[in-house]
Amino acid sequence: MKKIIIIAAIFATSMTAVAADKEFTSRDKNNDDMLSLQEWIGTNKDASKPEWIARRTKTHERLDKNSDGQISADEWAVRKG
Q1: How far is residue 1 CA from its own chain's centroid?
Q2: What is the structure's pLDDT at 44?
Q3: Would you identify the CATH topology of the domain 2-77?
């Protein structure tokens, strides 16, 4: 029984990582494994609204732990931790 629980936990963790990777990859338009502010802001209908840009900029800065102007895959992976 313990083996099944351990395997289920590993599988669930892997599925979460895959989902996170898909979201990260879909935002990374130039495939450099980094999310620039422009990639983070995006191109949806709200992307030209000042309040959207301000909110997304603030979030980008919070996720960019090393303040290099990019969200790396590692920074993305720990964003909820």
Answers
A1: 34
A2: 87
A3: Recoverin; domain 1 (1.10.238)
User: What are the domain boundaries of the chain?
Assistant: 2-77
- C-alpha to C-alpha distance for 21 and 2, rounded to whole angstroms: 29
Q: What is the number of other CB atoms lying within 10 angstroms of the CB of residue 73?
A: 14
Single-letter code of the amino acid located at 49: K
DSSP 9-74: HHHHHHHHHHHHHHHHHHH-TT-SSEE-HHHHH-SSTTTTSHHHHHHHHHHHHHH-TT-SSSEEHH
Encoded tokens for 8: 């289920």
Q: Report the pLDDT value the prediction gives residue 48, as an integer from 0 to 100.
A: 92
pTM: 0.71
Given this model, what pLDDT does residue 53 score? 95
Note the pLDDT of residue 1.
Answer: 64
